[in-house]
Amino acid sequence: MIPETRQHNLAYLYALVAVLFWSTSASAFKLSLRHVDGLSLLFLASVTSTVAFFVFLVATGKLDQLKAFTKRDYLWSAGLGFLNPFLYYVILFKAYSLLLAQEAQPINFVWPLTLVLLSIPLLGQRIKPRSILAIVISFVGVVVIALRLQRPADILDFHFTSASGVALALSTTVVWSLYWIYNTRDRRDEAVRLFVNFVFASVYILVLLLMLGGVERPNWQGLTGGIYVGLFEMGLTFLAWLRALKMAKTTAHVVNLIYLVPFLSLVIIALVLGETILLSTVVGLILIVTGIVLQKAWA
User: Fold this and answer.
1) Do 55 and 292 contact (CB within 8 A), yes or no?
2) Under the phi-then-psi rule, with left for phi > 0, alpha for psi from -120 to 50, and beta for the rest, what region is 114?
3) Residues 86 and 204 sit within 8 Å (Cβ to Cβ)
4) Taking Cα atoms as reference points, which of 280, 297, 30, 257 lies closest to residue 144?
5) What distance in Å separates the CA atoms of residue 89 and residue 91, rounded to the nearest whole number?
6) Three-class SS string for the chain?
7) Rounded CA separation 229/211 (Å)
8) What is the pLDDT along the chain (299 residues), one digit of tens a residue?
9) Contacts of 277 (CB under 8 A, 6+ apart)
10) What DSSP state is assigned to residue 187?
11) With a threshold of 0.85, does the pTM exceed it?
């Protein structure tokens, strides 16, 4: 039995590990996409994650839980696996191929607000007027980043780095929110259902690759990138985050750490990718996070 104080400290440790790895994701995506196309990168990452989840289930004795899965359970996992990681990352990697990492990452981070909006028709939830204000603040941040508004006068002479890239980055927030909403209805062990989701997703990706001409052999940089993304954006990091949530006194103790991700990510993007961080990116990100924090406080 782990003492309560030590358990709480371990929860923070697991959460910080997840936050640090997720902060490297944007840079890892951009570096990997220089050497391998998005679909091949996703296949490598998904297979790597599947193996990681399998090893975890064997090590923890949870693999036997698959015996209790019904046909309906597998169909449900097939649907969730289609949303994430398949559809979500197909769109996300395409967005990253069209945008700077410092643009794609903050725009993708507005998913908590998209979740609130989708919860209205899908879950019948009501939204307060001040929550609408919070959402508007965050989406102003998206506009600032997307249009690279360095000063107010730029609104008269704006341009998109890539309008389609911005649209794709925003659409990932819809896919992720749908996945989160439907995932809450799944009461099975989270690690087990993640494993099954990734098995289905790996099959979807392989079929699509074969339909588009087959699986190309990546160079060592592309292979390394795929394995890194699979372990530290998806597999091991998902498990670390789940462990943190389970061990924390309350989820609020660790969930707030997620707001460090986009800011740490900008630092890593500047150091690793050499991107000059624009003032519009910083201002836009502050607006996005402010809106998310206000929405949670006012909910």
Assistant:
1) no
2) alpha
3) yes
4) 280
5) 5
6) CCCHHHHHHHHHHHHHHHHHHHHCHHHHHHHHHCCCCHHHHHHHHHHHHHHHHHHHHHHHCCHHHHHHCCHHHHHHHHHHHHHHHHHHHHHHHHHHHHCCHHHHHHHHCCHHHHHHHHHHHHHCCCCCHHHHHHHHHHHHHHHHHHHCCCCHHHHHHCCCCCHHHHHHHHHHHHHHHHHHHHHCCCCCCHHHHHHHHHHHHHHHHHHHHHHCCCCCCCCHHHHHHHHHHHHHHHHHHHHHHHHHHHHCCCCHHHHHHHHHHHHHHHHHHHHHHCCCCCHHHHHHHHHHHHHHHHHHHHC
7) 24
8) 556 677 778 888 999 999 999 999 999 999 999 999 999 999 999 999 999 999 999 999 999 999 999 999 999 999 999 999 999 999 999 999 999 999 999 999 888 888 888 888 887 878 888 888 888 898 888 888 887 766 555 554 555 578 899 999 999 999 999 998 888 777 788 899 999 999 999 999 999 999 998 777 889 999 999 999 999 999 999 999 888 888 877 776 677 888 889 999 999 999 999 999 988 889 899 999 998 888 877 76
9) 102, 266, 269, 270
10) -
11) yes
How far is residue 268 from each of residues 190, 214, 243, 262, measured CA to CA in Å? 30, 34, 25, 10
Calpha distance 183→171 (Å, rounded) = 18
> How many residues in total does the chain contain?
299
